[in-house]
C-alpha cells in the first residue's frame, strides 16, 4: 500500500478496525484484477491524507475476504462502504470522482 494512512483490512482485523471503530470508516472493497479499482486507488489515497485524523480509511481485498464481501452484499467492485460507529450507513458502487466522494464524507461528518 502506497500510503501509511490507508489501513489494510482483512477478515482477521475487520471486526476490530471497522466494526469496533467509534467514528467514520471508509472501506474500499477492491481486487488486484479490477481496472476501475486501480483507477480509484490514488483518489482513496488523497482522501486518506486530506481526512487524516478525522476518519479512518482502509482497503479490503475481496479476493482474500469473500466472507465479509458477502456479508455486506458487495456484488460489484470497486465499492466504497461507509461505516459510522461500526454500522454500515452508505455506499458508493463504481468509479466516482473525488468531489463526489468528498461530498459523501462531508455529509456523513455532518
Outline of this structure?
The chain has helices spanning 14-19, 35-50, 66-71, 98-109; strands at 6-9, 24-30, 56-61, 79-84, 87-93. The chain is of the alpha/beta class. The chain is globular.
Using brief descriptors, characterize the structure shown.
single chain, 110 residues, alpha/beta, Glutaredoxin, five-stranded mixed beta sheet
What do these coordinates show?
- The protein has helices at 14-19, 35-50, 66-71, 98-109, and strands at residues 6-9, 24-30, 56-61, 79-84, 87-93.
- The protein has 4 helices and 5 strands.
- It has a single domain (12-109), classed as Glutaredoxin.
- The chain has 110 residues and is α/β, with parallel strands linked by helices.
- The protein has a 5-stranded mixed β-sheet.
Per-chain topology:
Blueprint lengths: L5 E4 L4 H6 L4 E7 L4 H16 L5 E6 L4 H6 L7 E6 L2 E7 L4 H12 L1
Parallel strand pairs: 1-3, 2-3
Antiparallel strand pairs: 2-4, 4-5
Q: Could you tell me the strand content as a percent range?
A: 25-35%
Gap between N and C termini: 29 Å
> Which architecture would the CATH scheme give at its second level?
3-Layer(aba) Sandwich
Shape: globular
Round the Cα radius of gyration to an integer and report it.
12 Å
Biggest pleated sheet = 5 strands, mixed
Mean pLDDT: 96
Helix segment tally: 4
Look at the helices and sheets and give the structural class: alpha/beta
Order of helices and strands: EHEHEHEEH
Estimate percent helicity.
25-40%
The largest beta-sheet arranges its strands as: 1-3-2-4-5
Tell me the total number of β-strands. 5
Amino acid at each position: 500500500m502506497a500510503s501509511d494512512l490507508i489501513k489494510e483490512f482483512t477478515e482477521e482485523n475487520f471486526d476490530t478496525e471497522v466494526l469496533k471503530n467509534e467514528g467514520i470508516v471508509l472501506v474500499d472493497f477492491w481486487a488486484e484484477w479490477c481496472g476501475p479499482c486501480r483507477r480509484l486507488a490514488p483518489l482513496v489515497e488523497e482522501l486518506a491524507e486530506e481526512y487524516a485524523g478525522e476518519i479512518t480509511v482502509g482497503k479490503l481485498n475481496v479476493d482474500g475476504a469473500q466472507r465479509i464481501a458477502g456479508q455486506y452484499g458487495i456484488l460489484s467492485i470497486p465499492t466504497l462502504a461507509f461505516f459510522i460507529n461500526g454500522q454500515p450507513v452508505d455506499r458508493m458502487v463504481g468509479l466516482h470522482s473525488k468531489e463526489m466522494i468528498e461530498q459523501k464524507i462531508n455529509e456523513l461528518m455532518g
